[in-house]
Amino acid sequence: MNSFGRYFRVSIFGESHGPAIGIVMDGVPAGIPLSEDDFTEDIDRRRSGGDGTTPRREPDCPEILSGVHDGFTTGAPLTVIIKNENAHSSDYDLFRDMPRPGHADRAASVKWNGYNDMRGGGHFSGRLTLPIVAAGVVAKKILCRNAMIPINARCIEIGGIDFSSGMKIMYICDNIEASEPSDTCRFGPCEECPSRSAVEVLPIPVIAAIERAMEAGDSLGGVVECVVEGLPAGLGEPFFDSVESLISHAVFAIPGVRGIEFGDGFRASKMKGSEHNDPIGKDGLPQKNGAGGINGGITNGAPVVFRVALKPTSSIRKKQHTMNFAKGEMSDLSVPGRHDSCFALRAPVVVEAMTAIVLADLVRMPI
Amino acid sequence: MNSFGRYFRVSIFGESHGPAIGIVMDGVPAGIPLSEDDFTEDIDRRRSGGDGTTPRREPDCPEILSGVHDGFTTGAPLTVIIKNENAHSSDYDLFRDMPRPGHADRAASVKWNGYNDMRGGGHFSGRLTLPIVAAGVVAKKILCRNAMIPINARCIEIGGIDFSSGMKIMYICDNIEASEPSDTCRFGPCEECPSRSAVEVLPIPVIAAIERAMEAGDSLGGVVECVVEGLPAGLGEPFFDSVESLISHAVFAIPGVRGIEFGDGFRASKMKGSEHNDPIGKDGLPQKNGAGGINGGITNGAPVVFRVALKPTSSIRKKQHTMNFAKGEMSDLSVPGRHDSCFALRAPVVVEAMTAIVLADLVRMPI
Amino acid sequence: MNSFGRYFRVSIFGESHGPAIGIVMDGVPAGIPLSEDDFTEDIDRRRSGGDGTTPRREPDCPEILSGVHDGFTTGAPLTVIIKNENAHSSDYDLFRDMPRPGHADRAASVKWNGYNDMRGGGHFSGRLTLPIVAAGVVAKKILCRNAMIPINARCIEIGGIDFSSGMKIMYICDNIEASEPSDTCRFGPCEECPSRSAVEVLPIPVIAAIERAMEAGDSLGGVVECVVEGLPAGLGEPFFDSVESLISHAVFAIPGVRGIEFGDGFRASKMKGSEHNDPIGKDGLPQKNGAGGINGGITNGAPVVFRVALKPTSSIRKKQHTMNFAKGEMSDLSVPGRHDSCFALRAPVVVEAMTAIVLADLVRMPI
Amino acid sequence: MNSFGRYFRVSIFGESHGPAIGIVMDGVPAGIPLSEDDFTEDIDRRRSGGDGTTPRREPDCPEILSGVHDGFTTGAPLTVIIKNENAHSSDYDLFRDMPRPGHADRAASVKWNGYNDMRGGGHFSGRLTLPIVAAGVVAKKILCRNAMIPINARCIEIGGIDFSSGMKIMYICDNIEASEPSDTCRFGPCEECPSRSAVEVLPIPVIAAIERAMEAGDSLGGVVECVVEGLPAGLGEPFFDSVESLISHAVFAIPGVRGIEFGDGFRASKMKGSEHNDPIGKDGLPQKNGAGGINGGITNGAPVVFRVALKPTSSIRKKQHTMNFAKGEMSDLSVPGRHDSCFALRAPVVVEAMTAIVLADLVRMPI
């Protein structure tokens, strides 16, 4: 089924080339200020990929159909839709005969006996992460009603290049880019300079790798790390509603996820107990946080930390030799159209949204 | 909450040192042959760790309280309990004051305001995997009612030593162990020899690493790989009930899991699309199975393959410097009692059980 | 929460004067033919109250947002919305100060701390039965995929006047109404007469009672009986998913329902066992059906029969003396606007829809 | 499925003649005092039927298997079982061939393909209300943690004899029964008399009707009324989680229930709006409570009031002519064994338990 959550529940719907995609949120407390503008920032982050380029305001504007009145949530189910533009749907007839490698085309056709809407990937389209981002905006607001609980996800690896030590900050002053802030410019001391800005940029080798992949009609994968601070200890349940169970459940609902690990993750399996174990400090918190903020499925008060592996984009221009069921023989396929060469760059805000959806549910769980 | 599944649902209960632990299974079809003996094999695998030693029959005998009559499931809820033996519960008073590093002692006390039963880890004990293994036995029977769907999990890495290419087979003939079968023995040709047997044994370096850890009062982690064959294409749902979502949800309910990855997993994030993508063959199946048998959350007909990272055992004899809340100061703690030095060795049958629980639910989902 | 069902699940949303009301259906099988025209008949029945007047085609046209492609359901979530027209919302400011007797105005304001949308009753409006009727249309199609399972609900009592023996049939021929078909008319033998029609009409005393209530600015209640034929034996579960549990759960979600009874219902509590018990006949079916088609929560193969008590419409023109919270004193209230004088007349198709929603869920339950 | 509730969830299991029956409760807050003695009073009420006879302590003692430690709930799942005594199971072979009229024998055999345990009615036995009463005890404790929320159910009609104005109180003083308290006795003024007691007794005509039914080998039905005081306004949800939906769902899980009505109930459908509508008083409460404490599915602060229709006991000694499937012909059946002639007398505490289970769930719902 296509819904998730017990106390804060989302139900997703829509196909890429149908009239609209959307999400219903149930369990939204009454009295939270909300307008359509609140979605802009995260929708923009999803669109631009946070790759340092100026976010552009494009037509993917969410419309609130229900659950908000006079600028506040009403307590009733909150529905957001995003209308689809007309698209060249005929492009997709091909994929019924020749399912795209790495895509759900084939599995979906078997599941739904050929009735699935294949245009733009239909219900399987990455476009469906748009309503998830919208729900994430509401979830973040629920989460932060009583205390600040910031969720921050970012790419830490692209195409095998690890930049987890942090993205490079570029300083732009007087239209000159530099890796360090300039001391002075024609406006005077740097701190007060009106033209000064600092942006996170991908490391040069990553940008180069992306460009090479694009030129080759190929694509890259990546790893997203997510950190949640400010969560109280005691959330989650020992077994089936462990915090890891719930987060991984939601994160694997993001198209293209291949793995998830918490805290020390796969590295923990190579460690000794004395290395991985976390002595508890005077503040009651683990001192190294190798468990990623969770013990026995329950938050322990330290930041929740996890990493998500995202595969390279499946739709590539580069030729692939795959089955053509109409012809009954293997043929070459070059997927037409414009596609992300690395959708992992756009994934952090989606991972944040899923995390917020899970945590909004958890903080509403009665203790 | 402590239940899982929509069509085949399990509800787990019990504390390590309470009267009994158990599990209720709802949605078991009527007419499946089942007796208490059916649990023996998997319960033994969990106990012995499958490390090549002879499994011993010990008192952890499941009792069927409901749902079985005259040797067949009745269709009504099926309940299995395992009684707990008397244990030295006083040992555990210490951990209220001085929560064990790596354990849920502290998080559980915060969550339940100190009312949690801490004896033996209480409801957080690894002993609770016993009823999960029992439910797995029933789930495997449900799964294989109409077709063979074998689930096989095994350790592929212990203490950082990768032996994924397969465990060594030791041939025992006439009480002599050898790495190759002997051609002859006093009974005649090897094939008919009544005393001949072959067992999987851990590689020597792994056994040595375990022994070193035990001597040092320390512990090791490991990685378990699970392969499911025979699943039809079309199981699962696009978003929140993706096969990965459901399996990861259940697997993270196993105490001590730190990560999970499907198919190429974290390695996929370092690959190009043209490498990771799976051309579909004439048989309609992906040719490399880098997606681990799942596309868009839906099974594609290829084997489902995933790997689980397990942390080293938390309870270690080796001294740890951690907070003593009674004294209000950091103190040394050496966890007393006998503990696994590597519980990952006992985990494969638990991973199989969780997988079977998920898949029994999925195959009962109407299409 | 505002969703219902396990295998066929509906999630309702919307407020009476918001942009739109709607419903998401999850678990719809792929391949069912469906267009927006399919909703017309039941939507018309809900509108006109089935009181013998000509149904008019009005603007409450459902739009399918997702889950249908090329005239067939796709298997993905099916969303239907109905846009709201502009309405005189200012009318409703009054009711915040002076909650209407019999309405949810007061309870909703307490629940949602005054943030609820009160315009037109907001999320509590009877208008929300419109998407339920739409979901009922889809549910009926699911139910009848393999076998005919007709669901028929009708009013059997209005304003205390019992007409359960059946509504009167009026024959209209050549524009002349008569209680019996005429043998001949100018077109020739009656059977082939192109202008001939037969309509069910309410008994004269009921029509008179309704008119008297309208004149007095008052309202009437009624009883709806629902009969489901063709259900196989064996649906439902012994305890919490008994057929009665599920149907009553859904039926009490209809605004204004005060009671429900199955088979002999409340009359059964006055009977002796030898009277109420149902001997089983040679066909394996109960011979009197006093249990309403259900034993031990499970369908027994006989028609499922139940009756629903509906209260009189709460919004009345007649003066009521009730609390004015703004003034802090009791005042007279005459609810303005046009309201049904007996919404029970429009309820049968809503009861059918709820029943279909429950049964579509039940027939999809694996056995 | 056999579980119910979202925040406080019960899962029932067991067969009448199996090893044990029981219930798992999930979502029990930690720190509630609970011992096995706490179950005695309600279990005794269920046993004796509250008919004025001295409750006897019999072997149906609940055992707590999990979730309680040192006299307090731990927060982990709470499991209670009641062991079954040996019973004459062979009695029940007959009913496979000749299903008892009014029982689930036939429907259950069809549902579960003949694998159902028919001994004592198996999972369909009224004995399963025993764990429900046990769960009710826990639910009542949850409900009353912060405020008194008394739930009181009692029979108001038996065999068609209405005594809703209250059961007669008999005063027993110095071993003399009287319908009024005596002014004096040998101990002195009545109020301080140590031998004085007052008991509720059924009206004489009811007792006579029960005796006549017993002599005739027949049975009687009845009506139970339940009143819940002290509930805050604002509980419940507008549609599918309306308070009536949830209570009726749980109440129809009690074997033998044929109908339920809230407030004015079926009588409301015969009333005018001006009669049934409830003006709101200065205290913010409805003045007549014809809605039974609920508007729009939401509690309004007035007592929740509902009535439940219970059928006459199905198992009767009196001959019934019904199908014998082994012989292929209609035959006479006289159900052997000792059975209640009116189980409605024992139902009030079961109705209370179900109500408490629903309300414990509702009060734990986050607002």
Quick rundown:
The structure is a homotetramer of 367-residue chains. Chain A is of the alpha+beta class and 367 residues long.
Describe this structure in words.
The structure is a homotetramer. With about 375 residues, chain A is an alpha+beta fold. Chain A is built from 8 helices and 21 strands. Chain A has helices spanning about 40-50, 95, 105-110, 130-145, 205-215, 245-250, 275, 350-365, and strands at about 5, 10-15, 20-25, 65, 70, 70-75, 80-85, 150-160, 160, 170-175, 175-180, 185, 190, 195-200, 220-230, 255-260, 295, 300, 305-310, 320-325, 330-335. In chain A, strands 1-2-3-7-4 form a 5-stranded antiparallel sheet, covered by helices on one side. In chain A, strands 9-8-15-19-16 form a 5-stranded antiparallel sheet. In chain A, helix 4 (about 130-145) packs across helix 8. The first copy, chain A, is globular and about 70 Å long. The first copy, chain A, starts with a strand and ends with a helix. Mean pLDDT of chain A is about 90; it is low at about 50-55. Chains in contact: A-B, A-C, A-D, B-C, B-D, C-D. The interface between A and B is large, with 104 and 104 residues.
